[in-house]
Design a protein that fits this description.
This protein is an all-alpha fold. It has five helices and no strands. It has a domain of about 40 residues. Helix 1 packs across helix 3, helix 1 packs parallel to helix 5 and helix 2 packs across helix 3.
């Protein structure tokens, strides 16, 4: 088989992340945050509501509220987060 045609497989640990994000979506948490805390015009990337939802999911699943570790945590679960978003 040609090396360029071989599928690339990524393995991620998903834990309870899909359940947590789904629950936050059902509660409308992201929209509620954005309603009360509008995003600044220069803001780029995810909205403030989604950033806080992901951070809350990190806090609940990792029992760690420090924002510095969230980016690394999300990088390890990038496909899962994108699938839930």
């Amino acid at each position: 088989m040609n090396k360029s045609l071989e599928p690339i497989l990524n393995q991620e640990r998903i834990d309870q992340l899909p359940l947590l994000i789904s629950h936050c979506k059902k509660m409308g948490l992201q929209k509620l945050i954005e309603k009360h805390f509008p995003t600044h015009g220069n803001w780029q990337g995810l909205s403030l509501g989604w950033v806080i939802v992901v951070w809350l999911c990190h806090i609940i699943s990792q029992q760690d509220h420090r924002l510095i570790y969230v980016q690394e945590w999300v990088e390890k679960r990038r496909q899962t987060v994108r699938g839930c978003y």
